[in-house]
Amino acid sequence: xxxxxxxxxxxxxxxxxxxxxQFLGVDITKELLVMAGWIVSVFLLGAIVYIxxxxxxxxxxxxxxxxxxxxxxxxxxxELIVVFVLVVVGVYLLSKKISTLYRxxxxxVIIIVVSLAGGYFVxxxxxxxxxxxxxxxxxxxxERQGRFLPGxxxxxxxxxxTKVEEGNIMMDDPTGKTWTVKINDDTKTGADLxxxxxxxxxxxxxxxxxxxxxITDEIPRRGFCQGSYCPPPRLMPR
Amino acid sequence: xxxxxxxxxRLTVRNKKYFDPLVGKYAQKIRAYIAxxxxxxxxxEDITQEAFIKAYVNIASFNPKLKFSSWLYRxxxxxxxxxxKKHYRYRQVEFSDEIKNKLIDDSPALSKILEKExxxxxxxxxxxxNPRDREILELTYFEEKSYLEIADIxxxxxxxxxxxxxxxxxxxxxxxxKYG
Lengths: 238, 180
Description:
The complex is a heterodimer.
Chain A: H1 3-13, H2 20-54, H3 66-74, H4 78-96, H5 105-126, H6 128-133, H7 136-144, E1 156-165, E2 168-172, E3 178-182, E4 188-190, E5 198-202, E6 205-206, E7 209-211, E8 214-217
Parallel strand pairs in A: 3-7, 4-8
Antiparallel strand pairs in A: 1-2, 1-5, 2-3, 5-8, 6-7
Helix pairs in contact in A: 2-4, 2-5, 4-5
Chain B: H1 5-12, H2 20-38, H3 41-57, H4 68-87, H5 97-105, H6 108-116, H7 119-128, H8 131-142, H9 147-154, H10 158-179
């Protein structure tokens, strides 16, 4: 043995290998973190899809084009998107530290995508998304954004205000139909109601009238969609 | 009776003496590898000692799915990278011709290639590469590691090893052309 080998031997002389349980503890912690991160990301994704589906994001879209989906996405609470991305990236990076998963990272990507998609349906089926959305803390976030929870989709009407009267507004939807929007003391208003403004009206419809539960600005001023970052509104016929 | 490296690693948890053959087998190779990565021959001795101490202390965490040599090289690699980060001397330090020849002599595969090429130029150019490109060429040509072993040492995907080697080789060629 040479000098180097002797030096190494001397170096380990007084040391002992760490016991296996210590590494086992670290591995289990990593795996639990991945599992917890995965569960959190599933529910976050569920919340994102739930908002798009139920909080006057998707229903007012006159046409399902990438442009409209982009606007819906940009209108989501930015905290939600940031936390979701961080959690998914964290899960991905941490998973690569488990065993030899780094050898085939695409397998990991497939597992994450499939799990999230599957997990979302589990979250929806269990009703947890709806439950969370109706909790006070979640409602505050939505209301801060000018969102209302009118119920399931189909209750939102988008249109351009043509006339403002006492207790009523008149508006034309993208198909050209004129609606009379009835406003009362309980109507939540998150938009400047003036002639020419494009608004989303939430509330049940009868023939040509809408009992407004809430009226929001059609130009989302929430999430990433603020000021110049927000694509301009476009009314397109269905 | 002959034991494989992996068996010796497992037995080391119970008895220190099983680590000796591993030290004997890998100490010089690991030192040459660290020296080539860090560009510092004198300090490579301490880094090598530190790498072996870490390997010994953490031997219970050795993953039997890996080859022992890959696991040991990964530890050595991390130690070398830490040293580089600490000292920022990666590209500034030049080997003397004597050291360069010693390092080359430790790697028969590359020395054969270098005999055919302009050896000094290739060696000098290799030292001018950035750490990431250099380490993958070191592992491929000096250490003659397989793609799977390189993936395990650098903790990257097996599929990305080939393209990375190709890119690093292109960069090496450019440097050779520039200085040649």
